[in-house]
Amino acid sequence: RLIYTSNTHKNTHSTPIRLSFVDAPNEGTGNFSVDKEGSNSLGSRKLTSEVWTFFVQVVVNNVKKAKCKSCNKLLSATSNHGTSHLMKHAKKTCTMRHLEISKGLAKLGVKTELDESTTLELKEKYKEFNQEISRNKLVIIEIIHGYPLSIVDHFGFKDFVKSLNPLFKMISRNILRNDILKMHKDEKLSIKRLLEYNDSRIAVTTDMWTASNKKKGYMVVTSHFIDQNLVLRNRILR
């Protein structure tokens, strides 16, 4: 329930406006009030700290609280607690604020201007985006699962990838095909060198199966050997 009150005077000077709410969020039930000009029902001292750029002062059950403008979390705002914990929340803890600032950046994990005197470094979990790594991952899932090359043209797939990271630039089916062939060539050369420098004997086995989706028979040739560290290795040759 919203209660609007204002003091009426005969003069023309403006007066503070008070908004009162019932059942404050994050604090169960109780009285919740927000006052204009940074004042509150427990005192009229104006808030001058720069931390109030990121918070709004509220009163819950007659106790001062600072409400984060980004994540709506309530923190203590009493005079004996100071404001250092509020600035720490704005600079490091508030994930929602970090996401708001990082939106539209060309890269993640860079230093971002928070205000004129403060800089904010995004958390390590927001790693720097790398187009080549993501492109390589797309090639790998294409090879493992045998998806059609046309998947990169499917609207649903492109929309899904965009939701994961809008910075990724979708490649064409021709580029995907060339990437697959290049990876096959690189892996073939790598296995050839591995077997060439291996001193142990190599056992070769063959397996045959029929693909259920295409009803087509396949045969795979696999090499088995023990490397220099006495670890059994397996590599598909064909």
From TrEMBL:
Q: Does the keyword Membrane apply?
A: no
Q: What SUPFAM superfamilies does the entry give? A: beta-beta-alpha zinc fingers
**Boundaries of each BED-type domain copy?**
46-101
Note the InterPro entries from the entry. Answer: Znf_BED (IPR003656), ZnF_BED_domain_contain (IPR052035), Znf_C2H2_sf (IPR036236)
Question: Which spans of this chain does the record mark as coiled coil?
Answer: none
The keyword Cell wall biogenesis/degradation appears for this protein: no
Q: Which domain of life is it from?
A: Eukaryota
Q: Name one Pfam family in it.
A: zf-BED
What PROSITE patterns does this protein's entry cite? ZF_BED
GO MF entry, a single one: zinc ion binding
Sorted UniProt keywords: Metal-binding, Transcription, Transcription regulation, Zinc, Zinc-finger
SMART domains (UniProt xref): ZnF_BED
| UniProt xrefs under PANTHER family | ZINC FINGER BED DOMAIN-CONTAINING PROTEIN 4 (PTHR46481), ZINC FINGER BED DOMAIN-CONTAINING PROTEIN RICESLEEPER 2-LIKE (PTHR46481:SF11)
Name by which UniProt lists this protein: BED-type domain-containing protein
Source organism (scientific name): Saponaria officinalis
